[in-house]
Amino acid sequence: MTGATYRVPLIGVTQQMVDRARAFFASVARQRTRLASYVSPGRPIGTVAGTWVTDCAEIQQCILLCSFCDHKFAPAHRRYGYHRDTKYSRGVGGDCDGCRSHRDDGLQLYVHEAYLGQGYTPR
Amino acid sequence: MQVHGHLYGGSPILKKLQIGEALTLAGLPLIASALADADGVMRASTTAAAESIGVSMDAQPTRLTSQQAGDANPAVYVTVNVRPDQIVRARLSGSSTAGTTLPEFTNTAASTTGLLITAAFGTAYDDGYAWGATGANAGIIRKIQGAVNTTATPIVPFPSDIAVGDIFYASTFGPFEDNGVQLTSNLAELDATGDNQSGTNFRVFGVTWPAKAAGGGLGSYADLIFTDHVLVQQ
User: Fold this and answer.
1) Which residues of A touch B60 (CB under 8 A)?
2) Which one, A33, A64, B48, B143, has least CB within 10 Å?
3) Chain A within 8 Å of B27 (Cβ-Cβ)?
């Protein structure tokens, strides 16, 4: 039989519990979709990574770089007025501003010195 | 305010989110826009933070609303830690203006039971907390059972007698209480004198209450948890 959906009754699971679980996952999915519409698309395709990072530096935005891109910006970060984070030993999660790759952790964080003590305090 | 850690450990997850209004300061609690014709993240208010997203790590004072030259993206983004379990640390301020020293309440009548502070507290501190700034009870915090214009009564007595001239600091909120906190007008600190006990914007996770000699007037902090985060179903 194709197209049929079988429901195996689980002992102790009421329809109310199933409905509440469905509502929970639907709610979280809705919020995540809404949040995703706010997220920056990152470096535009065709823009050189270094140009994009310096564009971020121009507006004093936090810069996140993976281990492959970090060594290119690390020697110059003081020249752009950035503090290199050492507080998060495992790095931070997010999208690399250089190569656009997503990492759950391990990204090097750079915070502009203008915001030290406001949104971020060095160790 | 700024992220001080996470309940479940691990690293911050930073997202660059589109702003819905100009943000001139970093370290602000941000919420998802609730207005019909608004988009992006916006500042919370001093007494509410429904649909919160996190605390900003940088600021973007300019919001663009027109097309830019060279097909540049007019959307402006701010960096936010979006983890719902983030612990936010904020300094306690003595008024709605950030950076104000906490008011000092000087005891004017001795209490040998440790159960009565005679000072002009005011009713806002009812169900708040008081801690010793000077004297034998310096650095010890107690919940206030009742506060009127002339006295405050702790529930559990202070361990030492309260002498005339002992100074106390106080806040209208305390750890794990089922009530909200009031933020300063710039949203960067907590107004320890503001009464928002009917609010539910943050849950206080812990309070650091140093004595006066240790800089308690400008060095008291509270750790907060978002109670209404967009990624957690209420």
Assistant:
1) 59, 61
2) A33
3) yes
